[in-house]
From TrEMBL:
Organism: Sphagnum troendelagicum
Protein name: Amine oxidase domain-containing protein
Family the entry assigns: Belongs to the flavin monoamine oxidase family.
Cell inner membrane among keywords: no
Keywords, in A-Z order: Oxidoreductase
UniProt keyword Oxidoreductase, yes or no: yes
Amino acid sequence: MEENRCKVVVVGGGLAGLAAARMLSGYRRGLEDVVVLEADSSLGGRIKHITGLAPWPVEVGPEFLHGRKHSSVRRIAEEMGCQIRELPYHILLCILHSLITISKFDRYYLGHEGRMVSSSEADEHTDILHVHQIFERLAEEDPEVPDMSMAEYLHCKGVNRVVTQLAQSFYANDFGCSLEQLGLRECIEEAQQWIYGDTYLILDRPLSSIIDYLSQGLQVHLNWPVVRVEYTEDKGVRLWSQNGSTICADYLILTVPMKILQECVVEFDPPLPPSKLKSIQSIGMRNALKVIMAFSESFWPEDLFDVICTDCFLPEIWVTQYPDVANEASQRTALGQFVVVGFMAGELAVAASQLSDGDILLQALSQLDSMFGTIIGSTTLNAEPCSKPSCVFQDTIDTMNSDSQVLEPGGEMMDPFPGVAEMPHKLITRSELHHPEMASWDWKLKPASTSFQGGYVMNWELQEYVRGGYTHPSLHAHGARRTLAEPLLGRVFFAGEATHPGVNPCLQAAFDTGQRAASEIIALANPSRL
Ligand SMILES: Cc1cc2nc3c(=O)[nH]c(=O)nc-3n(C[C@H](O)[C@H](O)[C@H](O)COP(=O)(O)OP(=O)(O)OC[C@H]3O[C@@H](n4cnc5c(N)ncnc54)[C@H](O)[C@@H]3O)c2cc1C
């Protein structure tokens, strides 16, 4: 490679970019001369974790692989020798004499009643069954139906307030937005094109290990934020970074998040065509917040995994336990032995991000106190707290900043868990929350607040090179993802989760779009090989 020229330049070192670069470099025949340009100081994009909070690295972005079938990311994980755990997500229920699939989470907390609904109770709860039926049956809807928001769609179906609340907390929040922003036609498309199955998969190591694996041997330039792209049919592309560096290539694969395109962080010359601009503006990407809390004791039933919460601050919480082997690499003492993760997206996340991180944690703890405080000792939910040892209290931990690095081709295999995608972060400890009455609280009534050891709030809007959570099925955006994915002049190719035609803002979608863009270049460069 000449110093400032390569065959293919990939912008963005997230899963999509690395999938594309790896495929091209493995294909050879002249296309292996690939350079990945990443704006951030580490690879991984939305795949990031923090250490020091729990005895395992805690994912602050994606955590689960959705579905076990057709998943390229699962195949990579297996190739790496990962142990994969499966969490059931859907079950079959017999309703009205017909067998239908019902999405079913572990438990539900109905905030307006102040009541936890167990999974067996949920099987007979009319509103819970109703909301799942509505969303499951989207796959049977006419894809050409006039578009409307899911809020309007539910209104047309005449559902009650509880069903609407469940739809917001379960489906809209998971899709990354509010019911008003969730578009019916893209929801139908997503339901009809989902081919991955219904389980949640968890790896035995942080997702950044996949990033480390994929990036081995690739030429990567970190801290290289692209600000300008010039492209012509005959000469290819020239890219500028913020500090004036340039690089030329025959082909470009652009994988930056949707917000980066919407906020015109990258200037194009010639400007992007109107159809492309229209699709960029029509695909929604809202904020997402992960609220991660570490505790000295577990105060929830031992078999609990996930709770969907209506009329609450956090619409969804989950409890995941990982092997602690991964943290050994970082030599850190964990603040707590048990972790609860809260997830909020869309308008809820926007509203919450007006609060300080400390206030977010206080609200989240207060919700957990309400949910679990009154049920401790109750036989109905088997809520006997585990008797695991408390962890040692520890003051604020500042993690080291990741240094920028260039991974040269044929570079050394990295450590098993080097934390390339570990974020620089500051944990908030118990002593920093400053609630005047905390010391006098009764553990049984306020189990979360009293056993809280430390927490972290990940606000994705504040990540300079992501600026939100992920794209969601959007109103009046039907077909926009295909338009967005179309190449320009046979030189500029588009990948990244937003470009998946099946409206699939997941890890495997990101990966598949990277491979799709790489195949488009292979087809152009070597048509006879296809
Ligand atoms: C909180 C949260 C939870 C999630 N949970 C799950 C989950 O459980 N399961 C799941 O499957 N998916 C989940 N997702 C979605 C998943 O993370 C994404 O779909 C996927 O990681 C997107 O990969 P990508 O390569 O398309 O984009 P990214 O990972 O965002 O990569 C894009 C890269 O482009 C870089 N970049 C931006 N601008 C520039 C520039 N100007 N120049 C150079 N580089 C630039 C960015 O720094 C970034 O590294 C979650 C996402 C979030 C935020």
